[in-house]
Amino acid sequence: MTAAVSAYGAAVLTRAEGAAADVTVGLGQRILQAVWRRRGEAGRAELERVVDEAADEQDDTYTAAVLSRLLKHALQDDPELRKELAAMLPIPAAGTVNITASGERSIAAQRIGTAITGDGHAPPRP
Q: Buried-most residue among 13, 44, 71, 115 (CB within 10 A)?
């Protein structure tokens, strides 16, 4: 959702998804639009305000926290929305594990022994 908000701002709520839209942006957009569709006029205006503020924020961590809180409240109040959003999410293949690391010197692993990042470290002795 953060990627969609960063890309489109509050327009993400009403923008038609383009064929060339990035998969992550497209999924975030569909999630936000589903939340938006299930609200009344006042709820939509509030959602637009929150998404607009999040889009203007330069800190992705803050934006993610705001959107996470928004989604949490929407899901608590609407079991049908939970079902709708669950159907949107990809189902991983049995036995498949996805591991992602992002950022300078990031590491990721399903199992890890010793991991050393940064400068000036000596490898551990056996």
A: 13
3-state secondary structure of 110: coil
Token reading at 39: 């609200």
* The residue type at 8: Y
Helices (H) and strands (E) in the chain, counts: 5, 0
Polymer length of the chain: 126
CB 28 within 8 A of CB 3: yes
Considering only CA atoms, which of 36, 9, 3 is closest in space to residue 21? 3
Nearest partner of 35 among 22, 51, 24, 23, judged by Cα: 51
| Largest Cα span, the chain | 65
The residues, ordered by sequence, that sit 6+ positions from 64 with a Cβ below 8 Å of its Cβ are 1, 2
List, for residues 44-103, the tens digit of each pLDDT value: 888 888 888 888 877 878 888 888 888 888 889 789 999 998 888 877 667 777 788 877
